[in-house]
Amino acid sequence: MRNLISILSIFFAFSLSACSGTDSTVNTESGNGTSPSENINFAKGADVSWLTEMEASGVRFYDSDGKPAECLALLRRLGINAIRLRVWVDPTDGWNGKEDVIKKAVRAHNLGFRLMIDFHYSDTWADPGKQNIPATWQTYDLTRMKQAVAMHTQEVLQALRDKGVSVEWVQVGNETATGMLWEVGRYSDSNQQNFAQLVTSGYEAVKKVFPASKVIVHVDQGDKLGRFTWLFDGLKKQGAKWDVIGMSLYPEPTMWQQQTNDCLTNIKTLSQQYGCEVMVVEVGMSWDAVQAEAFMRAMTGGAKNIPQCLGVFYWEPQCYGGWKGYTKGAFDKLGKPTAAFLRFAAD
Question: In angstroms, rounded to a whole number, what is the distance separating the alpha carbons of residues 9 and 6?
Answer without folding.
Answer: 5
